[in-house]
Amino acid sequence: MWLLLSTLALAHPVGGALPGHRLRMDLSEGELRVHQWTRVPIHHVLDTLEPSADFGPEAADAFVDRKHMELAQELVVSVDGQVQSWRIDPDSRSSKGTDVFLFFEQDLLIDLEPGPHTIAIRNGNLPDLPGFFWVEGELSPDWVLLETEPLLPSGWSMDESLREVSLSLRPMGQLESLRPAAERRSFADGRVPPVPAAWWILSFLGLVLGLGAALLFQRRQS
Asked: Alpha-carbon distance 155 to 124, whole Å?
């Protein structure tokens, strides 16, 4: 961590360096994991530090811990309109730096009750700076994604509307769960997988055989 902060002491302000915000949401049964990756321009960090700032090892540790918490606190997660408390996976935290950017990563964990949900995430980090945004995610087979607002591009975008994203999803039904599906699906493939044609044929044959057996049984009874 000291190497991360020591880059600030040697860095020069770099104009035109824009922040980056990347969120990956992993939805499993009972839990939402939000991986937060943030690229912060060094010139922005320098503007927030006192001229006499300490760049020693202890100050570096305190700075990195404080920055991780600030970034997490500006990420507001709501489920069905209710703001949720989250916990940080300590093993997911990482930080590094170059002469242009500082990079921070961490996972926020939110418990999910069974049932359909609307999940909204608002990213309030670095609100006065234009930046790049990327929102993506994966679903376990327990969930069906109904829609996202806004539509999520497959890559980086400077669309500020990606600061606020909502997802509508529901549990997969019992019959739907009989369909073949990948263990995990991206948001782009998050809708219910189509029923293979062979399943329709087998279902039709089963229906015909069932009706035939019922008619035969009725005739024998009469």
From this structure: 20
Q: Average pLDDT by consecutive 10-residue portion of the chain (222 residues)?
A: 52 67 95 97 81 71 92 97 96 93 97 95 95 94 90 93 96 67 72 51 60 66 66
Enter the pTM of the model.
Answer: 0.78
DSSP collapsed to 3 states, 176-211? HHHCCCCCCEEHHHCCCCCCCHHHHHHHHHHHHHHH
Closest CA to 69 of 88, 42, 47: 88
CB 77 within 8 A of CB 121: yes
CA distance 45 to 64: 12
Distance CA 48, CA 69 (A): 16
Rg (CA), the chain: 25
3-state helix, strand, coil in the chain (%, to 5): 30, 35, 30
From the list 66, 57, 60, 49, the residue with the least C-alpha distance to 13 is 49
CA–CA–CA angle 189, 200, 186 (5° rounding)? 5
DSSP structural state of residue 173: P
Q: Are 75 and 122 within 8 A, CB to CB?
A: yes
